Amino acid sequence: MSTIFAFGVVCSLFGPALWIWEFQTQLSVGILFSLGVLGAIQALQVFVLLAFERSKGRIPPGGPPVLEWSNLDRMYLLSNRICATIFIYHCYQYVMTLSASEHQGTFFNAVIVIPLMFVVYDLPYSFFHRLLHVPALYPLIHKHHHAEVTPWRGHDDAVNTHPLEYIIGQYLHLWVPMLLNQCVVAFHPATFVVFMALAGILASLSHTRYDVDLCFYKPRDHDMHHRMFRVNYGQYVHCWDYLFGTYTAWETPTASQTEKVMSKVRPPGVDDADFYAAIRKWERQAKLVADAPYMTEQACANTMKRFATIRDAPKVAAVTGGNGFVGQALVRMLLERGSEKVLSIDVREGKTKIAVPPLSSLLTLNMDITAGSEDMTKVLQEHKVCVVFHTAALVGPYHPKPLYEKVNYHGTLNVIKACRAAGVQKLVMTSSPSTLLSEQGVNGLGIDDIEVPTAFLDEYARTKRLADRAVIEANSQTLFTTVLMPHQVYGEDDELFYPNVLKAARTGKLRIMGSGHNVISFTHVQNVAHAHICAAAALTSEVAPPAANSYIVTDGPARYLWDEIDKGIVEDGNMSIWCKSRAPTWLLMMVARVGIVINHFTSMLGSKVPLTPYVVRAMTMPRYFSITKTIRDLHYLPIKSFDASWKAMAVHQSQKLARK
Predict the structure, then answer these.
(1) 65 has a pLDDT exceeding 90
(2) So what's the pLDDT on residue 99?
């Protein structure tokens, strides 16, 4: 094994050596040309995955897929990509030697000759391919490529070969047309370009699970070679395999074969015949942290019953942003949990009517927290408010930047000033864990273990961080303050996150961003409201926690973001997003940054590119938080379990969207 590895390492130096030899006298040209070729190769990869993802058929797996590349894989891929730049450069030089004026395009030399090129190419390639399967050579060269029994990445799996194999296989694409041009038919230069483009597409398609039938070409034929090794040696067409008796038609694996393969990529008892869902489960062999006992549906129901009898809500409370998603849930829970009077303060009118229990009252006030503190002070004094829950904020990534600071920071300063002037005893502010996120995200840390970033992901996070510090610093003997940070809030009345996801799924535009393996924490809106009431009850002095502290609030369990999204949209009747190609993070970030420039010029017209760098980061990074501190200091336990609540929310949102 060490000899084979050493041989592979030496051969992987071919690519860089060839590049230096070719471009030693014109490095700048070589660098620019190579960057262009590498960009085109990546574009080809994306094109193939996007162009054929809507095909209905999927080739069942012939074995467990290789999901993580080894160091040797990475060396081969790098070397072969460098070799590709040299090969394309030589193809370019050859095309320049062909004169379009001498070879006028005809139907024969521009169209008919293309299938002929594929047929003639596969003759020497078939013999070369059979040579690679000779026992003396197979372990040294070709065995590496056959480690992938179930290719699925497209171009990346196609070029993950030994450099010697790659170089010879590639240059056959050049030598065969040169021979045809000299001995058979003088073809048009554009014909060679089309041949090379089609060859790249078909080679990539042969290493996906898309089951398409393009007359003379079927990806399943090459997939059969990966399964059985000594059949179907042709690269594109298999007429020579027919002639030499090495062709074997693709066969559906037997039930026992399928079960043997799928049992390796899914938990026992899960009926999942779709390859991409199986890939996802295979990739999830690293188990999530087990759910704690208090996170179960029954435990949450018991917690809800217990707190319903405690009646721990403040006697008179005010909620800023009372008509918002979180604010409205909090107002409703305050009334249910025993508040005699609740003031709902918001700049906008509420859409949902809240039932008011007997012996309680709800006062809805139209007030702008950015307009100063005087009016709010009068209201708080008049009604003798003892606790203010400050949930009002400007959320979402699409507002003008100055507005974030005006609402989130200066509006919070006005709330603090009004609380002090009115003699309010407690202030509980709603913030967000986005104030703690860097580009690396968070995976299982508690709030005290997270280093606050010096650069924030967006303006919302920056201005909320300013507001957080202002609230913490306002803590005193007369005003006890604390900050809660619920993460990825969801619920039946959500109008921001899940509804937009569902709309995108119904139009067919939704696809996984990045790898799809990012773990995050979710929070049901009722758990958010419950945590606020717990925090107010726990605020008993200016020195004991939770005073002058921040707390992250979640449902508790860690979940894969894209798995949970997929459950909801499949329940809605849409195709699973795991059956589509994933959008790479680098491509999304490039589009998002271009979108910033476009938005700068089109914002006055009311048109915006919705994809922003923050959206890309949020949908691709891990955002899983520990709530140990929250449970300890606030005596908080969730009253809504995630799995049951997420399913109920998804069903409700589907029905609501269907009614529109």
Answers:
(1) no
(2) 64
Extract the tokens encoding 397: 């990534």
Region 371-382: mean pLDDT is: 93
For residue 82, the tally of other CB atoms under 10 A from its CB is 23
What share of the chain has pLDDT > 90, as a percent? Answer: 43
Could you report how far apart the first and last alpha carbons of the chain are, in Å?
63
Q: Of 534, 556, 544, give the one whose Cα is nearest residue 484.
A: 534
Tokens of 262: 């799928």
Picking from 121, 330, 317, 313, the residue whose alpha carbon sits closest to that of residue 233 is: 121
CA–CA dist 471, 466 (Å, integer): 9
pLDDT value of position 121: 94
> Residue ranges per domain, the chain?
2-252, 256-281, 293-659
**pLDDT above 70: residue 123:** yes
| Residue whose C-alpha is closest to residue 186's, from 121, 120, 108, 124 | 108
The kind and range of the H/E element at 568 are helix 561-571
- Closest by alpha carbon to 505, among 608, 562, 576? 576
| CA-CA-CA-CA torsion sign (535, 540, 542, 545) | negative
Residue 264: per-residue pLDDT = 39
**Does residue 287 register a pLDDT over 70?**
no
Q: Does the pLDDT value for residue 263 go beyond 50?
A: no
Q: How many residues does the chain have?
A: 660
State the pLDDT at residue 268. Answer: 36
Instruction: Quote the CA–CA distance of 567 and 569 in Å, as a whole number.
Output: 6
| CA distances to 320, 371, 473, 538, 548 from 427, in Å | 11, 19, 12, 12, 10
Domain 293-659 in CATH 3.40.640.10: no
Rounded distance between C-alpha atoms, residue 87 and residue 102, angstroms: 25
How far, in whole angstroms, is CA 105 from its chain's centroid?
46
